[in-house]
Fold this protein.
Amino acid sequence: MSLDTATVRRIAKLARIRVDDAEVATLQTELNAILGYVEQLNEVNVDGVAPLTGGAQMAMRLREDVRTDGEIAEKILANAPDRVDHFFAVPKVVE
């Protein structure tokens, strides 16, 4: 399959892409190369390969939902300009 310049302009219009006259030839070459690659994929032998319907049917491994402090609180608070106990201290902004 080969695209002509009118089809390239129509594709650009549908995609809402502004294409100058000088860019049409380059875009036509690139689109034809993409379509050529897709045609090559039709030649691949897929006999015996089960179709993949997506990853949604796979069972996900779950971990226990445990709340932690990340075990690096002191490292994080070491960067704080001001702190109170294990918290960042910030100036009061609402009266």
In short: The beta strands are 83-84, 87-88. The longest helix spans residues 21-41. Residues 42 and 49 are 14 Å apart (CA to CA). The two ends are 71 Å apart (CA to CA).
